[in-house]
Design goal:
It comes from Penicillium atrosanguineum. It holds the Pfam family GST_N_2. This is GST N-terminal domain-containing protein. This protein has one domain: Glutaredoxin, CATH 3.40.30.10. It starts with a strand and ends in an 8-residue tail after the last helix. Strands 2-1-5-6 form a four-stranded mixed sheet, sandwiched between helices. Helix 5 packs parallel to helix 8 and helix 7 packs parallel to helix 9. The protein is an alpha+beta fold. The protein contains nine helices and seven strands; from the N terminus they run βααβαββββαβααααα.
Length: 273
């Protein structure tokens, strides 16, 4: 079988060591879970829009004002000719096209009623995926709420963003333009950082409770991983890559270590091609 091409975001070189973009990680976990042959094409931040345009894939996400948010991942499957340009839709495609591959069903029925009660920041990208009622609807809602919870605390990681040194100034200017704030203005004081870190711990308490329903752990369904775990795991990868080692160690220990256990358990699905 010819491998799927998986377009991931290249940050500071080597990309394989600094990869920490949450949505591409959701897709990488899903590809490895399904044991679908693939190869990674690493795309620098400044080239994402042109790559999507060349693939004739419009933006799958928008900002709250309706403007397009050009990002990755994208997968291109030569076996079917399909090109899919959103992390959630990638997983749906893999399940529908390769239902019995790898470890089985990415979307087993389960209770996914977690809700994040705060509104998303006006600049946060919003997914446009649409699915019919059923298990996929629950997963999509879970994805939206988990994205919102982790996005609310991205100020904690911006200073640790692993820009490619060769394009750092251009990349910072591009990202500042997206959010309407100079990059330097995003820095926070140590006091504010401590407050945010504490609030982040409290916010993740609601999500952590879902990981205590099955004491066999470490996944939401005990010993059986699902795409819901990859949603959370993708964000943990981002925070691992951008927080200090000491802060990420602290995060892993929150709420009796449920997120640390999840992160470590997902290593089996984290291999690079």
């Amino acid at each position: 079988m010819a491998p799927i091409t998986f377009y991931d975001i290249a940050l500071a070189p080597p990309a394989e060591k600094t990869s920490c973009s949450p949505n591409p990680w959701k897709t990488r976990y899903a590809l490895n879970f399904k044991k679908t042959p693939y190869k990674t094409t690493w795309v620098p931040l400044g080239e994402i829009s042109s790559v999507r345009a060349a693939l004739n894939i419009p933006a799958s996400r928008t900002f709250a004002d309706g403007s397009p948010y050009q990002t990755l991942p994208v997968i291109s499957d030569p076996a079917t000719g399909r090109i899919v340009g959103d992390s959630f839709e990638n997983a749906v495609y893999l399940q529908e096209q390769y239902p019995s591959s790898g470890a089985g069903d990415l979307f087993p029925a389960q209770e996914l009623g977690y809700e994040f009660e705060r509104d998303l920041d006006l600049h946060a990208p919003i997914a446009e995926a649409k699915v019919a009622d059923g298990p996929l609807k629950a997963y999509l809602k879970f994805n939206t709420n988990v994205d919102a919870a982790f996005t609310a605390y991205t100020q904690l990681v911006l200073e640790g963003f692993p820009f490619d040194p060769d394009t750092a100034e251009e990349d910072k200017a591009m990202m500042s333009g997206r959010i309407g704030v100079p990059w330097e203005a995003l820095r926070i004081s140590e006091e504010k950082r401590a407050e945010l870190f504490k609030a982040f711990e409290e916010t993740l308490g609601g999500l952590a409770r879902f990981y205590t329903r099955d004491p066999s752990g470490p996944f939401l369904m005990g010993s059986r991983a699902s795409y819901a775990d990859f949603i959370v795991g993708g964000w943990l990868r981002m925070y691992k890559g951008m927080l200090s080692a000491e802060e990420f160690k602290t995060l892993k220990g929150w709420h009796n270590g449920v997120f640390g256990k999840l992160h470590e358990a997902l290593e089996v699905f984290a291999q690079m091609d």
